[in-house]
Design goal:
Layout (H helix, E strand, L loop, with lengths): L3 H12 L5 H8 L3 H8 L24 H10 L11 H12 L7 H15 L16 E12 L2 E12 L4 E7 L4 H15 L5 E4 L6 E4 L5 E3 L1 H10 L2 E4 L9 H14 L5 E2 L2 H15 L11 H10 L13 E6 L5 E4 L4 E4 L8 E6 L3 E5 L5 E6 L7 E3 L3 H9 L8 H5 L2 H9 L2 H17 L2 H14 L4 H12 L24 H11 L5
Parallel strand pairs: 1-4, 1-8, 4-7, 11-15
Antiparallel strand pairs: 1-2, 2-3, 5-6, 9-12, 10-11, 12-13, 13-14
Helix pairs in contact: 4-6, 5-6, 12-15, 14-16, 15-16, 16-17
């Protein structure tokens, strides 16, 4: 399989240098069929990675406890006095004799894998006159509040210097997924692709600046370029002013569309609104050409390339291995995400979008979905439902699992207050309340129940309904006039006392 750089060179020879397929095949040493396939390729989406299947070593199952124990003891021994695969094999033969029926190769493979796990060091110049269609891209800083939470975020800006028209989209970060998603959204909104786009040298797309002036690009960015068919041009290092139009547009959009600091519930809805506001902004007159920006943009629009027939997947995919609690880490270990207890110490496929971290199984089915974390500080995202379901099935082992210590204090206190027989039912109920609302609301219900001294299951469910569900408020029933009004019955308690005295308290 050819690298994206090799593919780009092949396409350049054909589309820009005018070489035919035979000439390209001769020059590159690749088969003519291979060359042809990359010339007529339309879908440049990255193939999804396959999950690596770990060997099960099922024949070793009765002996794994011994092997693991010996290798773990080696952590206390000098390097030269630790078990080799041969020594492990010999000890197993000595101990189990004829009952041991595994080959040395199987033992060696398992020992190598286990040693890696145990002894790993890691614990878990632009021309003054711009031609129509040419565009520039840049990110800028912009804060916003989503659902009351403040984000020190980024705004992606795409500008057309010829017309001075620009578009902006807000994101929580400045990664590859945000860049691709923002550009894709704008391309689809305007109905075409700028034939030439200027970029800076961000590490998300440029891996190395070559002294001769060239750039080594990431494979994913090359795929994006080839999929949409535009020419990517780069500023000189530390010369962002070379794309001054978009530099100015960053500030313009921020001052005119993001002041005061936006507050909203849905980022995707705000981004749709921003595109409309950019259209409205284009009705103003160009600062020096004597026409409106929208009038000038018609020439930009005429120069646009057609959109590709196949949609581009802007997501990023990676395989990760979970820890003993079924969790994994991203962003250099700062961001922690949960999967489920059954996936502890296993490889899973992770799909990264601008706003989500989606965990997939080997069949690409969703296991769990998280809101993506942003920021260079330690954060955790827990989806508790799989863990609660697991605990509900084995309530007796609750206190002896690491998961128990991960639970909020109020939930642990509540579990301590119920009988052993009720623990499973309570955990199942909390899982159902979590699915109905959220884990946070379920925990809030538990905390409220503790303040009332209420620990029975029915009270917990009713309390959650009262706190977090809409209760139908019925109007008082108005009886028609023809129904007689009954006199209020007032009991005569003295009559009861008289009866007691007459009959004697011992007979009552």
């Amino acid at each position: 399989m050819l690298s994206m750089t090799q593919i780009k060179d092949i396409r350049k020879m054909y589309f820009e240098e005018g070489k035919n397929i035979s000439q390209i095949a001769k020059k590159t040493g690749h088969d003519r069929k291979t060359v042809r396939s990359y010339l007529y390729k339309e879908d440049w989406n990255k193939e999804l990675p396959k999950l690596k299947k770990e060997p099960s070593f099922s024949k070793l199952e009765p002996f794994k406890a011994d092997i693991d124990s010996w290798l773990n003891e080696d952590k206390k021994a000098r390097r030269k006095q630790r078990h080799t695969a041969k020594r492990v094999y010999d000890r197993l033969v000595e101990k189990y004799k004829n009952d041991f029926n595994c080959s040395y190769r199987t033992v060696a493979a398992y020992v190598a894998m286990k040693k890696k796990e145990i002894f790993s060091e890691k614990e878990g110049f632009l021309p003054l006159e711009h031609v129509p269609g040419e565009a520039q891209v840049d990110f800028g800083d912009a804060d916003f509040y989503e659902s009351g939470k403040l984000y020190n975020a980024k705004c992606l800006n795409l500008s057309f210097p010829y017309s001075n028209k620009g578009y902006t989209q807000l994101f929580k970060g400045e990664n590859q997924e945000c860049l691709f998603e923002g550009l894709k959204t704008i391309f689809e909104y305007i109905g075409g692709v700028p034939p030439r786009i200027w970029f800076d040298n961000a590490s998300t797309i440029v891996t190395r600046v070559i002294k001769s002036g060239g750039r080594n690009l990431t494979d994913d960015f090359i795929r994006f370029i080839e999929h949409y068919g535009f020419e990517a041009v780069f500023c000189n290092v530390d010369a962002g002013h070379e794309k001054g139009n978009v530099e100015n547009k960053v500030g313009y959009h921020r001052r005119n569309m993001l002041v005061p600091v936006p507050r909203f519930e849905s980022l995707s809805e705000l981004n749709k609104e921003l595109l409309i506001r950019c259209e409205e902004d284009a009705k103003r007159e160009h600062y020096r050409k004597g026409k409106t920006i929208e009038e000038l943009f018609r020439q930009d629009a005429q120069a646009l390339l057609e959109l590709p027939k196949i949609a581009f997947d802007t997501s990023k995919y990676m395989t990760v291995k979970t820890d003993g609690y079924g969790k994994f880490f991203l962003n250099n270990g700062l961001h922690e995400y949960s999967v489920a207890p059954k996936y502890a110490n296993k490889y899973v496929l992770v799909k990264l979008t601008t706003n989500n971290v989606i965990v997939l199984d080997e069949s690409y089915r969703q296991i769990v979905r998280h809101d993506r974390l942003y920021g260079n500080y330690k954060q955790q995202s827990m989806q508790w439902l799989p863990y609660l379901n697991q605990l509900a099935r084995r309530p007796g082992a609750l206190k002896y699992t690491g998961i128990y210590q991960m639970l909020p204090q109020s939930l642990r206190e509540y579990m301590e207050s119920v009988s052993k027989q009720e623990k499973g039912k309570v955990l199942k109920a909390i899982a159902e309340l979590t699915q109905k609302s959220s884990f946070e609301k379920a925990v809030e219900t538990v905390s409220t129940a503790l303040t009332y001294g209420t620990t029975d299951l029915d009270s917990l469910i009713n309390l959650h309904s009262l706190l977090h569900e809409k209760v139908l408020q019925l109007e008082p029933v108005q009886l028609p006039d023809y129904i007689p009004k009954l006199k209020r019955y007032e009991p005569n308690l003295l009559a009861y006392d008289k009866s007691l005295r007459k009959a004697g308290t011992e007979k009552c």
